[in-house]
């Protein structure tokens, strides 16, 4: 009875049904404690012209993640426990609106500000799977879930109407700055950071792991990524920095793409016009100089001879013919022969190549840009590699100046599609002076897409080689 009288004296609003409780100055003990098992701990009803709960004048004595907070439910070391198979959660809010206009409702709005070096994370989530005593663990572990849903057969979505911010999205992520704001050199800005950090030998090889996982259903999606801008564009579609340019999916100046179980490669070029071709191969002839108005395709007769009627206008046509052709007499006033050919080189270099005894190393630098093009025609050269654009047999001549140390034995050769091919030339060094190695080579029946690289190795030791200069010429002898 005395406890009840104390409470009535302390909180008269509880006794007389008043609409507020004023606790006055802060108490050193817990102000209100609700204990026991009940249906509803605190029930708010009625109409409020102000805030239902207002923490505006609250000052919190912050001491860390386990210290005082505005609202708390458990700690990291002692979280609230739920052993029931349900989806109740800690906080559930449901609202609806039937208002018109162009505004919108916010379920939860959080704004964090900083004026010093301390960072701000307005909303943060951590989904952890701790030790699982038995079974395989959960199938769903998602730190955030955002779904936009047209949840009715009569639900509608209006047109954008010129509003760049309109639309139906699972999430809108944006970074912005006022004119005059600054970002330091070396800082990084992005509206989305995707980070994979699965460690451990128990990560199953059959696990699918992606940077971004995209699914689609219902109607056909216009594109995986849509681009739209009101001012500037994007400098690059993809950027692989100094930590990633030599890692998967980059391989031999190409990007790896897998369609089901088949591995494909998207070739890369250091020239924006590298893949513009001025010739076409057909079933009956190889036609060049497409700018010529008149093109004659010669068709062999059953005896292997060209019908003389078809050669009447040869003087007015530019033609290149493949296959076995037999002509009685051919008079050529001016022959223009331009087979695929090229020359690449470098000089005054002091690039050091790391050697491992007996293992071939690509002659290149850290940026795959050691060589420079002197004259390249109908041959692709990128990443210090040659890619064959027209099938045929090729002659090549390579000269390399290099230095090593005493008693080193160096060998140079070509790799075709990551496999050694052709002769191997050898040189032994006795001092650290600059020496020369030559590699004349004939490669028969190269195919379109064949990748060629100049390789070097030290068979005597793991002493590094320093390449000084190189000249690499090649041309197609015949298709």
Helix-strand blueprint:
Blueprint: H1 2-10, H2 12-16, E1 254-259, E2 262-267, E3 279-281, E4 286-288, E5 341-346, E6 351-353, E7 361-362, E8 372-377, E9 379-382, E10 385-388, E11 392-403, E12 408-416, E13 419-429, E14 435-446, E15 451-458, E16 465-478
Antiparallel strand pairs: 1-2, 3-4, 5-8, 5-16, 6-16, 7-15, 9-10, 10-15, 11-14, 11-16, 12-13, 12-15
Protein described:
With 479 residues, the protein is mainly beta. Among the domains are: 274-337, no CATH class; 341-478, Jelly Rolls. The protein has two helices and 16 strands. The strands form four sheets. Strands 5, 6, 8, 11, 14 and 16 form a six-stranded antiparallel beta sheet that branches. It starts with a helix and ends with a strand. Mean pLDDT is 83; it is low at 1-20, 276-295 and 302-317.
